[in-house]
Amino acid sequence: MAEMAVSFAIDKLLPLLIEEVKLLKGVHKEFAEIKDELESIQAFLKDADRRAAADADNTDEGVKIWVKQLREAAFRIEDIIDNYMMHVEQQPRNPGCAALLNNFSHLFKTLKQRHQIASGIQDIKSLVRGIKERSERYGFQRSLDQGSSNSRGSKNAKWHDPRVAALYIDEADVVGFEAPRKRLIDWMVKGRKERTVISVVGMGGQGKTTLAKTVLDNKDVIGHFDFVVWITVSQSYNVEGLLKDMLLKFYKQKGSNPPDSIYKMDRESLTNEVRNYLQQKRYVVVFDDVWNVHFWDDIEFVVIDNKNGSKILITTRNLDVVVSCKKSSFIEVLELQPLTQEQSLELFNKKAFKFDSGGCCPKELSGV
Fold first, then answer.
1. 204-223 as b/e: b if 16+ CB within 10 A
2. How far apart are CA 300 and CA 15, in angstroms?
3. Between 188 and 81, where is the model more confident?
4. Which of 29, 235, 280, 311 could lock onto 291 through a cystine, CB 3.0 to 4.6 A?
5. Which domain-ending residue is among 102, 119, 150?
């Protein structure tokens, strides 16, 4: 009698299980599509932020809103991917007839969750489709692609990141940084034992990256720390990406190849790896060009306090980025001031006449 009841139940439930398999196959395919979409959006956002930083004053407000919507869509896709992966990991994998009823049980217990995932995927596809349609309707993509290059009079000009050049600038070409540089070096090597956030705050193009680089090149600073890691952050950043970048640079400094497992780690695993590497070391981690006022919330538990004088150096345009660090760390703030008229003239001469008159204004032009 019991066998007949079980057989009857299986006959009733088997079609449901078959339909479930079909549904999951469809979800798997759509999941792969939105995963590819996320990678494309992330690559686009990274490029868009570079362009926006290069020509912040000329970026159209509509374009800014559109990019913001894309970023929010990327966050939603990441959430859906996390939920989907968690659901896949919970799927029963036991073979055989004995596990069939367990599969049926799992089917009904997770019915709501599966439909939420499927619905979420459909919603995000509709959202991305709408964002793309607005892009085409108002020409946002075209505006972004042409914005910074048009301002230079060339539609096909390639954008140049000034921070790259700042990392390789000759110290002799630096003007007006003597006092700020000395203060930063003192904070670096003579500061407290507790981990301290040291910040350089100033307008775009004022030389924050250049100043930070000259400080880290100082022999007293080099000899004081076990190692220095430089991470460029910018407007759009991914925490997992920052952590991977840190680990890769750790291995590079050690002269060893990073394990392939780094590229498969989640945020928690990456955080633990970085923390383990920083243990018992006196270090400097530079986060260059930070825009997000919540950046410290993402990174504070990664950069551990060994009570040995480790430093976090942040360059930013926004003082609020640094103020947000006060809740869990000591901070030192250096706000860059504009160059004096004499310093501005000195810098101009060094740039304009570097290869003609040794960085000095020719006599025949001095009165102009």
1. eebbbbbbbbbbbebeebee
2. 52
3. 188
4. 235
5. 150
Total domains in the fold of the chain:
2
pTM to 2 decimals?
A: 0.52
The answer to whether 38 and 77 have CB atoms below 8 angstroms apart is yes
Instruction: Measure CA of the first residue to CA of the last residue in the chain; give whole Å.
Output: 109
* Ramachandran area for residue 287 (φ above 0: left; ψ -120 to 50: alpha; else beta): beta
Distances from the Cα of 263 to the Cα of 97, 202, 279, angstroms: 38, 35, 22
Q: For 98, which DSSP code? A: G
Alpha-carbon distance of 52 to 147, in angstroms, equals: 9
Angle at 361 between CA 356 and CA 362, to 5 degrees: 70
pLDDT in tens, 142-162: 555 554 444 444 334 343 444
Q: Which residue has the tokens 């759009």?
A: 236
Both 170 and 258 in a single domain?
yes
CA angle 47, 242, 195 (to 5 degrees): 135
**What is the β-pairing status of strands 196-201 and 227-234?**
unpaired
Are β-strands 283-290 and 311-316 bridged in parallel, bridged antiparallel, or unpaired? parallel
Domain containing residue 296: 162-352
Which helix H or strand E contains 33, and what residues bound it?
helix 2-54
35-53 burial code (b ≥16 CB/10 A, e <16): eebbeebbebbeebbbbbb
At residue 91, does pLDDT exceed 80?
A: no
Locate 23 and state its tokens.
């549904």
